[in-house]
């Protein structure tokens, strides 16, 4: 009795949600992931990240970002602390590590001038490991069945 024409706004939102979920599932490397507690997932991810961190750094262009790597952790959307109450889960990717290998002559000069107190220390920041690209938008329903989209929520690539 209730056809999509009766609820055109909700229908579009549901279609968007389904399309985003299918995209996420297609991107997922392992579709049959066993269910673990959050502590077990964090331990596994930490072990995997330690193994992969040196390999990932070497893949970057011309060896400039060797210390800056993409790291991932499995979380609930609620863990992001953005005010959403939901049981939806995601793989959150973030950039970590140092950018010392990307240091240029300019950076070395700034360090030297700062050390000699020729430049105020709080005005000079070292190169930092940051996202250079972000994952696709994340779509989810909260516990009140309200549809949300998070943009630029998770890193795709990192650089200095």
Instruction: Give the class from helix and strand content and strand pairing.
Output: alpha+beta
Here the CATH topology of one domain equals: Cystine Knot Cytokines, subunit B
What's the total count of β strands? 6
Percentage of β-strand residues: 15-25%
Helix share of residues? 25-40%
- Backbone CA Rg: 21 Å
Given the structure, what is the number of helices? 3
Instruction: Note the gap between the termini.
Output: 57 Å
- Spans of at least 5 consecutive residues whose pLDDT stays below 50 are 50-65
Identify the CATH architecture of one domain: Ribbon
What is the topology, as strand order, of the major beta sheet? 1-2
Overall morphology: elongated
What would CATH call the homologous superfamily of one domain?
Answer: Cystine-knot cytokines
SSE pattern, N- to C-terminal: HHEEHEEEE
Regarding CATH, which class of one domain?
A: Mainly Beta
Mean pLDDT: 75
Q: Specify the biggest β-sheet.
A: 2 strands, antiparallel
Family: Belongs to the TGF-beta family. GDNF subfamily.
Protein name: Glial cell line-derived neurotrophic factor
Keywords: Cleavage on pair of basic residues, Disulfide bond, Glycoprotein, Growth factor, Secreted, Signal
Main location: secreted
């Amino acid at each position: 009795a209730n056809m999509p024409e009766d609820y055109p706004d909700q229908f579009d939102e549901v279609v968007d949600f389904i399309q985003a979920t299918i995209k996420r599932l297609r991107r997922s490397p392992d579709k049959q992931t066993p269910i673990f507690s959050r502590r077990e997932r964090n331990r596994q991810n930490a072990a995997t990240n330690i193994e992969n961190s040196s390999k990932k750094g070497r893949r970057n262009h011309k060896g400039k970002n060797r210390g800056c790597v993409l790291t991932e952790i499995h979380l609930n959307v609620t863990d992001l602390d953005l005010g959403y109450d939901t049981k939806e889960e995601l793989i959150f990717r973030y950039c970590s590590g140092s950018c010392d290998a990307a240091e240029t002559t300019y950076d070395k000069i700034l360090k030297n001038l700062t050390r000699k107190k020729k430049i105020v220390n709080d005005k000079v920041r070292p190169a930092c490991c940051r996202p250079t690209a972000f994952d696709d938008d994340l779509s989810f329903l909260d516990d009140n069945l309200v549809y949300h989209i998070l943009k630029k929520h998770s890193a795709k690539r990192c650089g200095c």
